[in-house]
Amino acid sequence: MEAPRTAEIVSVGTELLLGQIIDTHAATMARVLAECGIGCQRRATVGDNFTRIVDTFKSALSRSDIVIAIGGLGPTNDDLTREAMAEAMGDELVFEEAYAEELKAWFAARNYTWVERNNKQAMRPKHGRMIPNPNGTAPGLIAEKDGKVMIALPGPKGEFDPMAEGSVREYLQSAGGGMIIASRTVRICGIGESAVDEQLGDLMDQESPTVAPYAQTGEVHVRVTARAASKEAAMEQIIPVCEEIQRRLGKPVYGFDLETLESAILAELERRGETLALAESVTGGGIARRVTSIPGASKVFSGGVVTYTAETKYQLLGVDPDLLDEKGPVSPEVATAMALKAQVKFGAAYALATTGNAGPTSDIDGKPVGLCYVALAKPDGSVEVNEHKLRGLREDIRARLEQFALLKLWLSL
Ligand code: ATP
Ligand code: MG
Question: What is the distance in A from the centroid of ligand 1 to the CA of 5?
């Protein structure tokens, strides 16, 4: 058989459809597949209904080389994966005497009562074999028939994880012809997904490496993926494409893979020997939290204050009370003053300030929900201030304003 290139994952269980549990196993499996060089083309979730499980398996088998089923291998009546797997492959189930004996011994060793129903777990597709399960009673199953492969894994995490990462990974690795799939993520801020799409359109049409964007809060991440015989060989394809993306987009490309906007800013400020201070109102220390989550932040981050009332803006920062009265705390003038005062108080090269109304109701001076200002004081003494009219829930507004503030700083460096 030719090396399989495509796979689908089918998660079985009504509790998944009811939203009672989250399908973390499918994500684990998808990652294992990718690392084995096999492309996961679809994922499906189906309830504990025999007809629908068989339908789902059959349609997955009709499209893909490998179908991986998760859950429903237990001994009870609503555990239907084993039977459905045989049915979908046009195979029959056979009783594996030796495994039934093992099971009986397992039960006896623990003083558990043996019931006939347990024999169900000793059944396997005729064209298949069992994957040993040292952590439970339901073995996994692998069957190969008519050029297709079906693999079934038990649902409990303590059984699923070792099997997925152990014998199933081994099987997939050799089935995948020793190929691996590797990727690198290019992290972009300050331009929207459609603009990225427009500038990278031709790269996205490429077959290999594949280039795919996905939107994050205030950022776009572009994943560059290649299939090759080794990680090094994949990277040889990936890196030139990442460099091309960086060349086309320029400054908005702030980093790769797990780098964050705040880590990129800190690294750049450290390189320049410059420092940062913060004066936060509406973001309530959120920017400080992001900045201080980076190890070694103290080399760059002098400090910050959360001044949440007009009084503290005056008392702690020294913002002119007349200005606060006249313009109101949510104003470009107050944001500007906060940034300039913080810059001086903390003796920093740059200072960022935020003020605004995150809702859910308009504040006392009637500023609409979502109206926010970010000010940036720069080493040359100048200040830039931006107005943002943000929509969404309180937490979204705050998170996006943090992002805008950091973005403003990054783009000015
Ligand atoms: P059992 O022998 O326990 O019946 P099983 O193979 O039949 O095992 P399920 O009955 O489908 O597996 O699921 C058992 C438990 O495993 C679920 O209650 C849940 O906690 C966990 N589980 C099942 N599927 C998933 C999944 N896709 N992602 C995360 N957890 C899961
Ligand atoms: Mg079950």
Answer: 27
pLDDT per position as a tens digit, 180-206: 888 999 999 999 899 999 999 999 988
Average pLDDT of every residue of the chain = 94
pLDDT in tens, 252-302: 999 999 999 999 999 999 999 999 999 999 999 999 999 999 999 999 999
Q: Are 131 and 150 in contact (CB under 8 A)?
A: no
Q: How far does the centroid of ligand 2 lie from the alpha carbon of residue 79, in Å?
A: 5
Which residues, at least 6 apart from 331, have a Cβ–Cβ distance to it below 8 Å?
355, 373
What b/e readout covers 9-26, taking b as 16+ CB neighbours within 10 angstroms? bbbbbeebeeeeeebebb
Distance 176 CA to ligand 1 centre (A): 27
Would you state the pLDDT for residue 1? Answer: 45
Q: Could you tell me how far CA 368 lies from the centroid of its own chain? A: 33
Atom of ligand 1 nearest to the CA of 154: 6
Residues with CB under 6 A from ligand 1: 11, 13, 15-16, 21, 23-26, 70-74, 79, 138, 154-157
Q: How far apart are CA 297 and CA 260, in angstroms?
A: 13
Contacts of 58 (CB under 8 A, 6+ apart): 88
Q: How far apart are CA 345 and CA 337, in angstroms?
A: 12
Among 70, 77, 85, name the best residue to mutate to test ligand 1's pocket (greatest count of ligand atoms within 8 A of Cβ).
Answer: 70
Residue nearest to atom 1 of ligand 1 (CA): 74
For 132-188, how does the pLDDT look when each residue is reduced to its tens digit (9 = 90+)? 998 888 999 999 999 999 999 999 999 999 999 999 999 998 887 778 888 999 999
According to DSSP, residue 117 is labeled: G
Q: Which residues neighbour ligand 2 (ion) by CB within 5 Å?
A: 74, 79
DSSP-derived secondary structure for 300-357 = TEEEEEE--SHHHHHHTT---HHHHHHH-SSSHHHHHHHHHHHHHHTT-SEEEEEEE-
Q: What pTM, to 2 d.p., does this model score?
A: 0.72
CA 10–ligand 2 middle distance (angstroms): 15
